[in-house]
Amino acid sequence: MHSSKVEPRTERLLNVLTTLGVLAGMIFAVGNRLIWASNPQMWAGSLGFFALLSLILLILVGKDPLPRTGLEGVFALGALSWALSLAMSRHIQLGWEHLALMTGYVVLFYGALVLFRRGVLHQRVVDGLLLVSGWVAAMAVAEISWQYQGFWQVVGNNTTLPPFPYRLMSIIGHPNPFMAVMNLYAPLAALNLRLGGTGRRVGAMLWLILYAFSLPFSSSRSGWLGALAVWGVLILLWGWDARMKLWALLRRSWKRMVLVSGVLLVLVTGVILVGVPYFSAHPSHGTGTLTQSRTGIWRYVLQIWQEHPLTGVGVGNFMPAYFDVSRDFPGGFLAPHAHNLYLQVLVEFGVIGFVVFFVFLGKLLFQLGKAWWQTAPESPVRIERAVALASLCSLLAHGIGDDISFSPVIMGGITLIVAMAWEERNGHLPRLPLRSVWLIVPVMLVLGLSARACWVALPAVQASRAYEQGDFIAAAETYQEVLRRSPQDILYRAQAGLAEAWAWQASGDARWLERSREHLENVVAQEPAPAPWHAALAGVYVAEGNLEQAWQALQEARARARNEPSYALYAGWIAEQLGWQEQALTAYREGLRLDPILAGSPFWEETALRRQAREGTAFIQPQPYWQEALSALEAGDISEARRRIAFSRFAGEKGFAPQAVEWRVALAAGEEDWALRAAKTLRDGLERYFSGWRGYNLAGYLNRAVFPADVPPNFLALFPQDGRLDALAWLREQETRAGNCADARRTWQVEQALRRYGSISDLPEAPPCP
What is the DSSP letter of 532? Predict the structure, then answer.
């Protein structure tokens, strides 16, 4: 591995600073989305740290000339395609953060080359990358263990297996990017295992064990494809270098080699025929292969691209454009990106950017491959270049089923890995007529764009915190500052409208309702807006008493979300209030068709029209696990009920019915502590639901602070008769008996909102609490 025998004081300082920067950068990149959504102050503090680190490094190496990498022409073409994409964007502000990240990767590439030339050891970078990614892998393994322990605790034994393996989420938030990270850094662990000292070899072995254990539980078909690519390329390149040794071994011990090959063939066949189908069985996949499950998304992607073939819809603008063509959300799958790296480039940058991207990839692969070929066989540098090629190929293979360009922990890592292999591709790199101090220009651009994003996000996060604490008026007032800081951000404008609707609920001041209507009318008029914003506007119209306008707004929402039952049911209720019986009947039946299990709600017993709408409605077949648990409980089979409710938890069945049934199962099993936990979880979830949360997360997907309300107050909400009212009444009794009066009042309010189908206005007073 590249090293320097002599480390003068400056070199030692550069090595320490580089190690610190890699560790901090990796930790920041892993938590980036979490920090952005919840703590812009911490994000700003991290930016300050990197600004200081960049300044110190530039002082130390600023006089050094920048290396000529041979990629400058491609970078110039890339900058041109980025400029065209931004200029043609519908929402240019959505592209600024992406521009900051991509500029940062280019700075990182050149900065790393300068530091390596000044004596920074590659090993310092490798250790930092493996340390943080190993921690991520360890957390994933702990998550798997915790989930299985929880499953066995609910079942009551540790011999029953769930109907399918657990699919980990990891601290990164999803198994697909988790596997991209693991596959990217796996060759570095193999590198340490081959060239490192004893301590590093032990650490690398531990890293690879964690990686191998978590690999199947990711249930990530894109990740498995990436794993096949990374190990295939690494074995091919390293095997080629050792071909003479392998041939000699084959000649000496051909029988043993045939036996080993046969065992490996049997193992690989077993993995393909048994392991892959078993670990692919998680219901989150739906049905079909990787390609089949992505076809619907890719069809939408190509439909969007046809509208903007040359320059694309604009960087960061895929999801807003997706709402122009998709009719699947809510009530179906929301695609925040194209789920294909190459189609993501095509749809956001058009043909121009697509061609530039492939020119860049071709030059990168050619130069790395050429450098590997020209290096002495089995030399540390050649081994390192094979690692870079394997890591890069893993991402290109992973990109067939997913887009990984949005993840700093992936893009920053591959940038450093390629830089390590690029440094000596033709001996010492030629020099550009620019000193390293000029990197201050793009560094300032990155920091400036990021600082502005923090500046805008800060009041948005403060508004969300005020809302969560029940101060709806403060939340709405704070959003006025958000709009002053970012007046063109349509997503923040929609969230301001929702905040103002809840401020009206808290204060009764009609001016808040008027502002809410104005903001929501503005966002739905600007473009084909997503269905939730039309539905929110309908709720505001209902609060104002404009039922006919509410009906029209809900028709728009239904047209954009064909599979969302709540919109059809709310439209039916509005039509019923207007006396439009035929429209009400049609809308009610459509809502029940989309979610037949809601036919069990007492809502349908209240009028003849509703009873007529419910006639002939059947429950969902096959039954969800929670309903099977309820059936077993009613049959007196507590053991089977425990097993089925554990299956429900493991499958992640949505809604509140699983929690209500779990409370019933726990009570029947005589485990009061378990019942109390289940009832509190149910109460807390319903409380958040009746405060407007539906989990749409549109803001989070666009790197914006998430406001904890997706619908205005009093939005119609129906539930089946699954025992949740009984659970709430029981919980309130327990809290009253224990003297927890504040919690008892909370539970009472949730119980009343449930009885009133989501309405929280004019709730009756809670019973006295001693």
Answer: H
Identify the domain boundary among 429, 463, 485: 429
List the structure tokens of 644: 């089925």
CB 33 within 8 A of CB 700: yes
Q: What is the pLDDT of residue 677?
A: 95
SS3 451: helix
The strand pairing partners of 427, in sequence order, are: 425
φ, ψ of residue 425 in degrees (nearest 5)? -65, -30
Contact indicator for 340, 301 with CB cutoff of 8 Å:
yes
Using DSSP's 3-state secondary structure scheme, residue 328 falls into strand
- Quick count: other Cβ atoms within 10 Å of Cβ 711? 26
How far is the C-alpha of 71 from the C-alpha of 87, rounded, in Å?
Answer: 24
Question: 319: closest CA among 309, 329, 311, 310?
Answer: 329
* Whole-angstrom distance, CA of residue 45 vs CA of residue 52: 11
Three-class DSSP category at 90: coil
524 backbone dihedrals φ, ψ, rounded to 5°: -80, -20
Residue 394 is assigned to a structural domain of this protein: yes
Q: For position 742, which CATH number holds?
A: 1.25.40
Q: Is residue 384 part of a domain?
A: yes
Q: How many CB atoms lie within 10 A of CB 252?
A: 9
Cα–Cα distance for residue pair 377/381, rounded to 1 Å: 9
* C-alpha dist (Å) from residue 374 to 234, 371, 559: 17, 5, 60
For residue 187, what are the contacts with CB-CB under 8 A and spacing of at least 6?
A: 230, 234, 386, 387, 388, 390, 391, 394
- The answer to whether the beta carbons of residues 44 and 451 sit under 8 Å apart is yes
622: left (phi over 0), alpha (psi -120 to 50) or beta: beta
Q: Pick from 398, 429, 460: which residue ends a domain?
A: 429
C-alpha 456/C-alpha 478 separation (Å) is 11
Identify the residue whose tokens are 């590093």. Answer: 200
Say if CB 483 and CB 460 are below 8 A apart: no
Residue 530 preceded by cis peptide, ω within 30: no
DSSP secondary structure letters along 632-667: HHHTT-HHHHHHHHHHHHHHT--SSHHHHHHHHHHH
pTM, entire model: 0.90
Q: Could you report how far apart the first and last alpha carbons of the chain are, in Å?
A: 72
Sign of the four-CA dihedral 278, 282, 285, 288? positive
Q: Do 532 and 570 touch, CB atoms closer than 8 A?
A: no
* Those residues with Cβ within 8 angstroms of residue 161's Cβ, 6 or more apart along the chain or in another chain: none
Find the domain containing 663 and state its range. 625-690+723-755
* Mean pLDDT (10-residue bins), the chain, 770 residues: 57 89 86 59 81 90 90 93 88 83 93 90 94 96 94 89 90 92 97 94 97 94 94 93 75 74 78 79 66 80 93 90 87 87 95 96 94 87 94 96 88 94 67 88 89 87 92 96 90 94 95 96 86 96 96 95 94 96 95 90 94 78 83 94 92 89 94 95 95 85 82 93 91 94 94 94 85
Cα(533)–Cα(471) distance, integer angstroms: 23
Phi-psi region of 692 (alpha: psi -120 to 50; beta: other; left: phi over 0): left
The total number of structural domains in the chain stands at: 2
Classify residue 381: in a domain, yes or no.
yes
Tell me, yes or no, whether 716 lies in a domain: no
Structure tokens of 400?
Answer: 């067939």
CA distance 748 to 683: 10
The two most distant CA atoms of the chain are separated, in Å, by: 91
Instruction: With H, G, I as helix, E, B as strand and everything else as coil, classify residue 173.
Output: coil
Report d(CA 14, CA 121) in Å as an integer. 9
**Which residue(s) pair with 425 in the sheet?**
427
